[in-house]
Write a structure and sequence with these properties.
It is globular, with a radius of gyration of 18 Å. By secondary structure, it is α/β, with parallel strands linked by helices. It has a 7-stranded mixed beta sheet, sandwiched between helices. Strands 4-3-6-1-2-5 form a 6-stranded antiparallel beta sheet. β11, α7 and β12 form a beta-alpha-beta unit. It binds flavin-adenine dinucleotide (FAD) and FE2/S2 (inorganic) cluster.
Length: 281
């Protein structure tokens, strides 16, 4: 973080990857213009940044890369409104502002020595991707026991990070279950079915486990009872919230739920913590 928490670091878009067939999701690889900013920017998977586009505004985006991927940051952006549309028409070489890292992170220390279940739906998979890359890094893999991933999207063309998913599929130190709601492709190699169904088939115990769950509210609503059925307690279920935000540092009051600021106390909360809050999220 810069000394002035409102001051973004200038960064260049080095590469743009169009992730989905509908072209609504693109991943931006950005590098800081100043080496000193690069060195100062240390983060932990689960955190986010405020990304600014000159003359358009600033938006919160989860960091999709892992700190083990050095020298750049990744952000995967869904085309939604003013700023994200603008990002989508930017070119490699263009400049954005990066303010952060902001917020808290997934509870990596608490998860050490545990099985980790990652459940993601749609484009909320971004910081989960960061977490998977982080855990699979040779320097970290021994810190965690089994890693199981359930990742679902509506149709095959909407999958993010296809090449990496295929690589993870081939590894024997991670168990990956990719699924789509529906497909008419007879050669589709993975599952067909909703995330809660695929979770129910593959996650049969909560013993010594944590579950990180990110996705659309409907997916979370039906996945939570599946996890609870196999014994996951509210403090073993971890979620990341996406509220509307402005300052990102707990000052403007835009993102609060009860007495918690999602930008500062979150965005990562356990279900036990969320159960204590008013149901405004
Ligand atoms: C912690 C955090 C992490 C996020 N990570 C990502 C990410 O990795 N990738 C990504 O694509 N998006 C992410 N988002 C959502 C992203 O910030 C919004 O899509 C973005 O702010 C929309 O800005 P806009 O100017 O393009 O849209 P606007 O013109 O402001 O609005 C367009 C539409 O988007 C809706 N919208 C605006 N802000 C939000 C918001 N914060 N959450 C949900 N809907 C919103 C509006 O209701 C409207 O329907 C994240 C949000 C948070 C809080
Ligand atoms: S965004 Fe300003 S307090 Fe959270």
């Amino acid at each position: 973080m810069s000394d002035n928490p409102y001051l973004p670091f200038p960064a260049r878009i080095q590469q743009i990857i169009t992730e989905t067939e509908d072209k609504n999701l693109k991943t931006f690889k950005v590098v800081f213009l100043n080496q000193a900013d690069q060195e100062r920017f240390t983060f932990i998977p689960g955190q986010f940044c405020e990304i600014s586009v000159a003359g358009k505004g600033e938006i919160p985006l989860g960091i999709a890369s892992s700190p083990t991927e050095r020298g750049y940051l990744l952000f995967t952006v869904n085309k939604a409104g003013v700023v994200t549309r603008c990002l989508h028409i930017m070119k490699e070489g263009d400049i954005v502002g990066v303010r952060g890292p902001l917020g808290n992170w997934y509870p990596w220390e608490r998860m050490e020595g545990k099985h980790v279940v990652i459940i993601g739906g749609g484009f909320a998979f971004t910081t989960l991707r960061a977490g998977i890359v982080y855990m699979l890094h040779p320097g970290n893999r021994d810190r965690f026991k089994d890693i199981t991933v359930v990742y679902g999207v509506r149709s095959p063309g909407l999958l993010l990070y296809r090449q990496e998913l295929a690589e993870w599929e081939r590894r024997d130190d991670i168990d990956v279950h990719i699924t789509v709601d529906a497909t008419d492709d007879p050669d589709w190699p993975y599952n067909v079915g909703f995330v809660p169904t695929i979770t129910e088939k593959n996650i049969t115990t909560s013993e010594n486990s944590y579950a990180l769950v990110c996705g659309p509210p409907i997916m979370i609503k039906f996945t939570q009872p599946v996890l609870e059925k196999v014994g996951f307690k509210p403090d073993q279920i971890i979620m990341s919230l996406e509220m509307r935000m402005k300052c990102g540092i707990g000052i403007c009051g835009r993102c609060n739920i009860g007495d918690k600021y999602v930008c500062k106390d979150g965005p990562v909360f356990s279900l036990a913590q969320l159960n204590e809050l008013p149901k405004e999220y």
